[in-house]
């Protein structure tokens, strides 16, 4: 049992260190953009670090949310409105019914 605990501890420590290195690399890359205005991308790294979360946050992701995410329903909703194909209300209603169908399917399988 201790070997498993030590292995998991090492794994999580390495994951935290890697995440820190990736954040530092993203900040460095954003700050190094040579095109004016200088530093225009640094705000994006700040927003990404402070205000974005993984799908399923604060819990874990489930199969239904994975399907909603992997079928690009949310970007599709925004695209329909921005292309003038639907109003915002129509687009939300359309995507809502698709999301409800996906969740019902996974609830029937006992995965949600």
Gap from first CA to last CA: 31 Å
Query: How many domain modules?
Result: 2
The pLDDT mean sits at: 83
Number of strands: 0
Rg value: 20 Å
The total count of helices amounts to 5
Low-confidence blocks of residues:
none
Structural features:
112 residues; 2 domains; 5 helices; single chain; mainly alpha
Describe the structure.
With 112 residues, the protein is an all-alpha fold. The protein folds into 2 domains: 1-52; 60-112. The protein is 71% helix and 0% strand. It has helices at residues 2-31, 42-51, 63-70, 73-82, 88-108. Helix 1 (2-31) runs antiparallel to helix 2 (42-51), helix 3 packs antiparallel against helix 5 (88-108) and helix 4 packs antiparallel against helix 5 (88-108). The longest helix is centred in the N-terminal third of the chain and has 30 residues, at 2-31. The radius of gyration is 20 Å and the shape is flat. The model has no long low-confidence stretch (mean pLDDT 83).
Please outline what is shown here:
The chain is mainly α and 112 residues long.
Please write out the topology.
Layout: H1 2-31, H2 42-51, H3 63-70, H4 73-82, H5 88-108
Helix pairs in contact: 1-2, 3-5, 4-5
